[in-house]
Amino acid sequence: MAKENLFLCMGSACHQLGVYEVLPKLQSLIQTHELEGVVELKGSFCLETCSHGIVMKLGDRCFLDISPQNVETIFTQDILPEIQATLARSP
Ligand code: FES
C-alpha cells in the first residue's frame, strides 16, 4: 500500500513560527500512533496560507494555525481522524 504524504510547510513564515520544534513532535506522534508504515512525513515549500500559523496538508485538506504548543492536540483531534478516514477509503 502506498503511504500517504503528510506535508509540513518549511517555508520562511512557518520556519519563523517554529517548524523545527514541531517536526520532532510530529515524528514522535507518528511513532506513538504506529503510523510509520502508512504516513510519510514530508517537508514542503510554502503552502500559501502563511498568515495562518504553521500549516500541514494531507490530501486536499490543510491544517492551519499549528504551533509547537498545540501540535499534539491538533494531530490527535484533526489529523489522526483524517489519516484514518483516508486509509479507510483506500483499497
Ligand atoms: S511559509 Fe508556510 S504557508 Fe507560507
Structural class: alpha+beta
Say which CATH homologous superfamily is assigned: Glutaredoxin
Order of helices and strands: EHHEEEH
Shape: globular
Strand content: 25-35%
CATH architecture verdict: 3-Layer(aba) Sandwich
Largest sheet: 4 strands, mixed
For the biggest β-sheet, the strand order reads 2-1-3-4
Give the fraction of residues assigned to helices: 40-55%
Describe the structure.
The chain is an alpha+beta fold and about 90 residues long. The protein has a single domain (about 5-35, about 45-90), classed as Glutaredoxin, CATH 3.40.30. The chain has helices at about 10-15, 20-30, 70-90; strands at about 5-10, 40-45, 55-60, 60-65. It has a 4-stranded mixed β-sheet. FE2/S2 (inorganic) cluster binds near residues 9, 12, 13, 14 and 47. The site of FE2/S2 (inorganic) cluster has 11 residues, from helix 1.
List the helices and strands and how they pair.
Layout: E1 4-9, H1 12-16, H2 19-32, E2 39-44, E3 54-58, E4 61-66, H3 71-89
Parallel strand pairs: 1-2
Antiparallel strand pairs: 1-3, 3-4
Bound molecules: FE2/S2 (inorganic) cluster.
Keywords:
four-stranded mixed β-sheet, alpha+beta, 91 residues, binds FE2/S2 (inorganic) cluster, Glutaredoxin
Outline of the structure:
The chain has 91 residues and is an alpha+beta fold. The chain is 42% helix and 25% strand.
